[in-house]
Amino acid sequence: MGRERTAGGRQPRGGGPAVLVVGGVVLAALLLRPDTGLWAKGRGPLGGNPVLVLGLALLALLGGLLLRGKYREQVGADRELNPVEQRLADGVSRVLLAASLVVPLLVLVLHRFGAPGAGRDVGRGGGTPSQLPGPPQDPASAPPPAQHAVEADRGVQFGPARVLLGLGIALLVVVVVIAGLYLWRHLTRPPIPDAAATGATLDHEQERLAHAVDSGRRALLEAADARAAVIACYAAMEESLAASGVDRHVSDSPQDLLERAVAGGLPAGTAATTLTALFREARYSTHAMDAGHRDLAAAALAEISDGLRPTGTA
Amino acid sequence: MTGSGANDPAARIPTPSREDTNVSLTRRQPVPDHATLTPRQAGERAAAVLDEIRTAVVGKAEPLTQVMLGILAGGHVLIEDLPGLGKTLLARSFATALGLDFRRIQFTPDLLPSDVTGAPFYDQRTADLVFRPGPVFTQLLLADEINRTPPKTQAALLEAMAESQVSVDGSTRPLPKPFVVVATANPIEYEGTYTLPEAQLDRFLLRVRMGYLEASEEAGMLRARVDRAAPEAELRTLSDPGEVLAMRAAVERVQVDDDLLEYAVALVRATRAHPHVQVGASPRGGLALVQLARARAVLDLRDYVTPEDVKSVAVPALAHRLTLKPELWVRQIDGDDVMREIVRSVPAPQTLPRTPIAS
Fold it and tell me: Do A283 and B358 touch (CB under 8 A)?
């Protein structure tokens, strides 16, 4: 969805799983060897075990839902989407949801549950509505159903098909393990901080805020150099803002951070502007800085920290 | 209006309008000595000039500021936008308010290099070849629709811009100081135009886009026109060539921290590594970026550059120096878009300096 990436940006990931999925599908197609119509019921060599079929359907359902969740999480994480991109992302999300439900459903509906060896015969005969029209067959020339089933079973048991079957089972185990790992990581991931923070999160933020302000005040007292003290005050303001949810982006200038903080409802906008101006002078000029600058910075930091502290906790 | 050719339609034909055309402007108008200006004083003078120009050019606050930055930084300005947006008015207003001699060349397909630079002619009285200076011998030159003339004529002007001198008939003649070219180009017409090559675009310190006015500003412009009952507003001359040079000297006294120089280098290098860019900005682009950032600091009455100064001029200073990959034309991504993305992604200097600064 991203329009463009900067140089040295993230490399495309997921090539390994994609190859795995494609390989699995190809292998499954080889194993199933469908020689009937699209909607004909039947089963492949692995279909004799209903637990395996149910497991595959469940895996498809969980995998689809997981994929959709990851997609929604990734798209739009870096930047705001424009309306066209948003519509496209919503469409893809809906398709993923539908596919997550339809694919396992089709697996279950179209699979022929029953005694081993009976699947292929039923899938061919019966004149189901979806059966492809073919030339009329001479009953005398058609092989008996039982004989056909025996030949099919023999094909599975001997030759390269047996090797492919083993490979398929191994592949399935790998996919299940990987899916399990993904699910485990998904479930154990720390939750994203919500706007309505819990009491514990609030306590943590207050601790960070208090720590930031304390470090700024300590720097004011300890630093013999007024310039270093002003810079430390500003650094403390940055930490305070981060504690209140306004992080500094890597490309932010002091003005950018200030504007985002004010737009985010920073109560002490004037003090923040004063401290930002003092910081710019201290950081990027060689002007002499004295105790007056230090006092101004200290007063601004105190005002900002008071404003950022939640009501009733000051 | 100081410039003799300012309102003269004959200025389209680039023949000098003065009698003593064989004497260069530098000798005719000696630059008066000005007291040294501090960056703050220079910024105040520049702000006064901008305020005066804003009485004639409605809206366009940022383009006006950018043109002033180009003049303060000692460079040439390319204004690229649609016709009728006030490019000529803008250039003429700057010339008037700054007290600079002004000429205008309307570039056409049949314009020759000698029409720009001047050429020797035979003087019957002295029976000698005398050089007649072209319209380039001025202090503020409006090169209107520069992309309408063939590359040979473009090159003649661009060489004069780069060297601040003209070499004709074996002798080199310096151009007056200050020498500022404000060139305009129409970005949408391709019929009968000669797009400026990247190497020549690089000679412009910055590219300015005017853009349309807001509805309220456009209504205000119409109201101002009706009220003054004259085609153009009368501007006061608030400065002179010597003061412009003093303002430029003040820009040279603006400090730039090492971290900011590294930031400028990072921005320039990012243009070379960007996947959408075929050829990135040259080292000259880095110089332009820093010089414009210093001019921006002067306009803000500071004698030191901040990250905001660098960020604010990155797009006008570098976007026109990028050669994008051809397929981006279809996606309607231009250099400005790429530069904005680069500015958003390149890390700005950290809060804490790497080396402690003593008070």
Answer: no
